[in-house]
Design brief:
The protein is mostly helical. The protein is built from four helices and three strands, in the order αααββαβ. It has a three-stranded antiparallel beta sheet with strand order 1-2-3, with no helix packed on it.
Length: 124
């Protein structure tokens, strides 16, 4: 069981464990909706989109964004853009470094750790 503790006057961030479980649940639900859309498409004459304006999902994503101070919408980008999941850093010394985030755990680290603590790789 995941527990969050709150102290008066302090803003405690969502735990890594809860974040990763939440991301996994969002992905699982998205797959179910996609399968349902595909099945509906087989029996309908026109394009069918089920659950396009899911208010529960929108609310959950707003909470994650707020809790992790995700001003750049990195969570939604990570979930829904079909691209390589990495971020580039141009350092003052001219080097270009890359942070790969193929997992929800690495996404959480990107959102919560200073860039100096991320395992950056030289971009070739």
């Amino acid at each position: 069981m995941v527990r969050l503790f709150f102290c008066m006057g302090e803003n405690i961030m969502i735990s890594k464990e809860l974040f990763c479980k939440t991301i996994a649940d969002i992905q699982k639900q998205d797959r179910k909706i996609s399968e349902f859309d595909h099945a509906l498409g087989k029996i309908c004459d026109s394009a069918v989109v089920f659950d396009a304006d899911n208010l529960y999902l929108a609310a959950l994503l707003r909470i994650l964004k707020e809790q992790l101070d995700d001003k750049a919408d990195t969570i939604e980008w990570w979930l829904y853009e079909d691209v390589r999941k990495c971020i580039w850093f141009d350092l003052e010394d001219g080097r270009r470094m890359r942070y790969d985030m193929p997992t929800a755990e690495s996404l959480y680290d990107y959102l919560t750790l200073p860039s100096e603590q991320l395992p950056l790789e030289v971009e070739s």
